[in-house]
Amino acid sequence: MTAEFVVAAPRIFAVLLAVVLLIVLLSMFIKRGSIVRKITALVIVLVVLGIVAFLFYRPTIVAVGEQGIAVKRFRERTVPWKDVIEAEWIEDLSVSGYRPARRIVGVGLGAYKLGKFRLQNGAAVQVVMEQDRDALFIGTARENYLFGLDENDRLVEAVGRYLEVGAR
After folding, report:
1. Cβ atoms within 10 A of the Cβ of 130, count?
2. How many CB atoms sit inside 10 A of residue 154's CB?
């Protein structure tokens, strides 16, 4: 039985894209110039906003099953259970060394974080977070993962079916 968790980008991201589009449309009407240049600029902005929305506004799916824990966004990254060295439940992320401190590659909008981050303790980790109160840390020999989902209790329960989860 596979448990799936969908992590959607915050709505503020869509609002920011809409505001940018509104500003471009308003400037088209206010600014003088040829209609061809205005339409060309609008098409360029629409293409850029479409690419940005495609890259950053798509949902991430975290699946826990018999094979391991999988993170699906553009491609699927699976961590087999046999590769997991440690699984720790961090109850108060704000005071622990596991708190994401710096973004290396990814998105960070408030509590929503997705990508590779450097933790407070200096370790690099793949992060999937909707909230920053508590988290599940999964450590392997190659890479570490930090999950801070809205449904963390269900996530820990699903992972607990396959391996022992310690607490910090």
Report:
1. 22
2. 13
pTM across the whole model: 0.82
For the chain, the structural domain boundaries read 3-56, 74-167
Tokens 């590779």 correspond to what residue? 116
pLDDT band at 21 (very low <50, low <70, confident <90, very high): very high
Q: 97-144 pLDDT, tens per residue?
A: 999 999 999 888 889 999 999 999 999 999 999 998 999 999 999 999
Q: What is the DSSP string of the chain?
A: --EEEEEPPPHHHHHHHHHHHHHHHHHHHHS-S-HHHHHHHHHHHHHHHHHHHHHHSS-EEEEE-SSEEEEESSSEEEEEGGGEEEEEEES-GGGSTTSEEEEEEEEEETTEEEEEEEETTS-EEEEEES-SS-EEEEEESS-EEEEE-TTHHHHHHHHHTTS--EE-
Q: What pLDDT shows up at residue 88?
A: 93
